[in-house]
Amino acid sequence: MNKKVVFPIILTTVLVCTMIPAVGWAENSSLEKINQEIAQIRARMSEQKKNISSLEQQISAIQVQQKELEDQLLYIDMRRNETQNKLDKLDGQIEVTKGEAVKAQQQLDEAVERVAKRDVLLKTRLRAMYEHGTVSYLEVLLGSTDFSDFLNRFHALQTIFEQDKRILEENIRDKETIEAKKKEVDEHLAKLETMFAEAEKLKADLDSQYKQSVAIKAELKEKEEDLHDSLVQFEENLLAMARQEKAKLAEKIRMQGGSVIASGGKLGLPLPPGSFTFTSGFGMRTDPFTGKSAGHNGLDMAAPKGTPIYAAEKGVVILAGLYRGYGNAVIIQHDETYSTLYAHIREGGIQVKVGQVVQRGEKIAEVGSTGRSTGNHLHFTVYKNDVAIDPAPLIR
Ligand SMILES: [Zn+2]
Questions:
Q1: Does domain 1-255 match CATH 1.10.287?
Q2: Fold annotation for 277-394
Q3: Confidence (pTM)
Q4: What's the 226 CA to ligand 1 centre distance in angstroms?
Q5: Is the model's pLDDT at 232 over the cut of 70?
């Protein structure tokens, strides 16, 4: 970067030495050269500003993406919790249903056993009746005293057999009911287990989505940090360029005889003597807009609209136009250290252009009340290394 600047300087020196030009020509040529250099620096600065705003846009886009991911993560996490709750609930239901299944199995086993026992009993009775039955029957029947007694006894035997048969049938029905219930419980359990498996799969999917989003978010964060590092670098470069610009401006002023402030000289009055009154000094004061105590970074000098404003010292105009709350304003750079601001200039009252060299006492503008102002006045600030200082001791 420095080589570029050094080369033209050497070239100019050589030209000046060998061609022995008229002094005026040399001055004009150097002035032209420095103007070119300033223009180059400004072009680089505007390029850099474009880069900076592009970076800032990229950073805010990434921040938006990160915000979206954060919302997504919150949503996924919510669904994960829901699914986990569902899993816990299903787990509980499965436990209960397994218990029911075990119980149903026990009941079924008991019912099967009852049926088997009754079956055995009946068969035994039948076999007994078959084997000894005739005898028993005969004994029972032959023991009867008369035909009526015989019929009664026969009927009683028949009743016992019928009763056994009925109990067996009841046991079988009972067993079938329990079997159906057991089947129902088993089916319910299978359904719950399917639901559990599905929820488990969903949970695994959500976990993997969550992990993925976290990874993307980390990537974005890293990218944002890289961009931010570049931004800081670009801003530092811009500052360095601004310092170069200031040095060139100071060089330009030195060529024109130089300013007197740095060497202890005083500033000229920015308004004609007797045309104004000081209304606010430098430092703390009551803000005319908010009524609160606030810092005031310059002097306020009330004067009628249109009163001429003078350059307080020789310098280069570095700003001529709207400047935030200052309304229409002019800033003059006097050397590498000092600059002055003239604010609230009336509409159309600016009479200088950026880059113009102005002499001490030269009319640059006219008093007005543009910007954050309650009446016609000049707000005058002196900057030393870009920090406002009290102008009072510096004014002649
Ligand atoms: Zn002010």
A1: yes
A2: Glucose Permease (Domain IIA) (2.70.70)
A3: 0.59
A4: 41
A5: yes
